[in-house]
Amino acid sequence: MPFVNIIRHAPFIFFVNTTTNYKSSFVIIPPRLGLGRRICSCSGSLPSAPKSNVPLSPSQQTINGGKVTELKKKVELLGIQGHDSCLPGRYNYLFCPKCRGGKSMGRTLSLHIIEKGDFAMWRCFQTDCGWAGQVFADSSKIIMNGTVLEPIGDELIAYFAERRISKATLQRNAVMQRSGDQAVIAFTYRRNGVIVGCKYRTLEKKFWQEKGTKKWLYGIDDIKEAATVVVVEGEIDKLAVEEAGVHNCVSVPCGAPQTVFAKELPTLEKDIAYQYLWNSKEYLDKVSCIILATDVDDPGNALAEELARRLGKERCWRVEWPKKDDFSCFKDANEVLKCLGPEALKEVIENAKPYQEYM
Ligand SMILES: [Zn+2]
Q1: 271 and 186 together in one domain
Q2: What does the alpha-carbon distance between residue 355 and residue 325 come to, in Å, rounded to a whole number?
Q3: Range of the domain at 269
Q4: Do residues 208 and 258 share a domain?
Q5: Quick check: 199 and 15 in contact, CB under 8 A?
Q6: What's the whole-number average pLDDT of the chain?
Q7: Helices 333-340 and 235-243 sit at what angle, rounded to 10 degrees?
């Protein structure tokens, strides 16, 4: 089942939105199920869903029980714990794995498994958290703050195959797609297996990010114990580098600047554009060699310089992309993979030069 493939490498997947205000954004149960209403109670007394007076047949009870078990498994994999005693048809207040209840440290997460066991949904009522979502017993779809995500389909698999990126690599990185008629790639950002953000990309190269999520490097779990780290400029380049057998690679989340910022480095709090580096500090501090494999153009060089001045030039190396013809070079990791193959890409990375020499 696709969902199992996605979660196999991600024992605790969940989605976050750190700014959602529950008063203005809430989960609506589909009206066709007759339960269209808000979950908004934050009081200690838990509302119960309406109960049916018609007793269920033993076979129906077995079917529903199986679905509830399936849902509980999925919810567990999303990091929500303490659901063992949760009964379908009730609102259960649990600890939120995202915010742990904030300052109150209370049970701020409302989990509701609908009585027939078709789906479970949750929302955290801690004002700064607001993590919400839905999982389905019979489907691998996930709803993240209103956006339906599903396993990547044939059209996008073909799109990546043309870029020599395999289905196995897509699944290992939990790449999904937005449900709907337009093909939209959903790069899920994970930390400790938990999905902490999502970046969307259309085939026409239009990007946007899940609003309000803290920014991280893409693929950060792959550099947990790494002494050498490769940094690329986009998610597809990260996947390309993986095809070359190099897993200790991360991508920056928001591309390259046009030019190098002329002034002194801002303080940590004011360094908004590079907050993802500071968020990832505990990982990067352990690294002795950072190979900058950004694009060959001016923004790519500017990004390499901005990264190097923050990470320390003495431990940075720079990839030299091979020549395409007398006038130009291959521009990035994916282009090298596509045109020259995985071995050539690996070689280019291995032959990076010390950053200060490169300059
Ligand atoms: Zn929360």
Answers
A1: no
A2: 24
A3: 218-359
A4: no
A5: no
A6: 81
A7: 40
Co-location of 32 and 155 in the same domain: yes
Tallying the residues shown for the chain, one arrives at: 359
Distance 239 CA to ligand 1 centre (A): 31
Of residues 57 and 183, more confidence is placed in: 183
Q: Tell me how crowded residue 68 is: count the other CB atoms within 10 A of its CB.
A: 22
Distance from C-alpha of 342 to C-alpha of 340, rounded to nearest angstrom:
7
Q: pTM for the whole thing?
A: 0.73
Cβ < 5 A residues, ion ligand 1: 96, 98-99, 124, 126, 129, 131
How many percent of the chain have pLDDT more than 70?
82
> Considering 175, 191, 214, which residue would you say is the last residue of a domain?
214
**Domain co-membership, 78 together with 192:** yes
Buried b (16+ CB within 10 A) or exposed e, 5-24: bbbeebebbbbbbbebebee
Q: How far is the CA of 39 from the centre of ligand 1 (A)?
A: 15
Q: Do 235 and 183 belong to one domain? A: no
Q: Per-residue pLDDT tens for 208-247?
A: 887 767 789 999 999 998 999 999 999 999 999 999 999 9
Q: Which residues pair with 149 in a beta bridge?
A: 142, 178
CB-based contact 346:316 (threshold 8 Å): no
Distance 111 CA to ligand 1 centre (A): 12
Whether pLDDT at 53 is above 80: no
Confidence of residue 60 (pLDDT cuts 50, 70, 90): low
CATH number at residue 301: 3.40.1360.10
Q: Which residues, in sequence order, are CB contacts of 66 under 8 Å at separation 6+?
A: 117
pLDDT digit string (tens) for 269-301? 888 899 999 999 999 999 999 999 999 899 999
pLDDT band at residue 156 using 50, 70 and 90 as cut-offs? very high
Task: Point out the domain boundary residue: 184, 214, 244.
Answer: 214
Ligand 1 centroid to 120 CA: how many Å?
17
- 204 with 230, same domain: the answer is no
